[in-house]
Amino acid sequence: MKGFVAPSIALLLSIVIYFINLSALPYLSRVYNLLRLAVYPFFELKGNVQENTKRIVETYLFLRNVSEENYRLRQELEEYKLYKAQLLACESNLKSLSQAIDLPLPSGKYSIVYANVVAYDPSGRDTFVLINKGQDKDISEGMLVFSGENLVGIVDSVYGSSSRIRTVFSEEFTLSVGVGDKAYIYRGGFPMGSLLHVKVDDKINVGDVVYVRVPGKVFPQLKVGTVQRVSHDGKGFFKKVDVKPSADVRGAYLILVIRERL
């Protein structure tokens, strides 16, 4: 309040001098001009502060609304990608009905949990990540984790409000997968994973998609990776198949957990 006393007095004197026309007197004109110069910057500053504060508040509210809307749209986008993967699984199953009549078809909507990554593998190999959801969201070991259409990994350990995810880059990661109409076992690795027990006469080509295919389960046809290299040294019954994982662990904005154990 003390800071407003002097400008207020100066303003009052300026108004009084102006209305009684004393500013026309030669001796008081200088006083009037000095008072006006003293008061004008104060009110100009006050106006600028008010205008800038208004703009800052409006900008903050706008950015907050945009951020909330952006997060909601990202969630919807991830759901649509999951539905697309489900449709691909339906198509694959329908093609296989002639060979396996009792093969189940996908059912309804999957129960999923949204999570964010809170820690990465410090080695830089992306063999695991930590997410900010755990027992508090009914997550348990053995649940698949994905981002977009790509499989990220599987829940390895669960804590109160966090979980550890073993990713497709981990050598300890193994999962039943499919390539075309054939079933294999995928083993993780960095920077390449591999398919196990691929027979020499199996038709697998570079660029083929490796997808989730778990016996007795009907999961979305999530992409594990693509075949990068196929080789055989002429010995044994199996050939070597290298697979490049599709997941971008550090670039994933949202991590989704399918709340159904393997």
Provide a descriptive summary of the structure in words:
By secondary structure, the protein is of the alpha+beta class. The chain has 3 domains: 1-84; 85-168 and 248-261, Rod shape-determining protein MreC, domain 1 (Thrombin, subunit H); 174-245, Rod shape-determining protein MreC, domain 2 (Thrombin, subunit H), CATH 2.40.10.350. The protein has 2 helices and 13 strands, in the order ααβββββββββββββ. The protein has helices spanning 2-19, 26-96; strands at residues 112-115, 117-120, 128-131, 143-147, 150-158, 163-167, 174-179, 182-187, 193-199, 209-212, 223-231, 238-245, 255-261. A 7-stranded antiparallel β-sheet has the order 1-13-4-5-6-3-2, with no helix packed on it. A 6-stranded antiparallel β-barrel has the order 7-8-9-12-11-10. Helix 1 (2-19) crosses helix 2. It is elongated, with a radius of gyration of 34 Å. The termini are far apart. The model has no long low-confidence stretch (mean pLDDT 82).
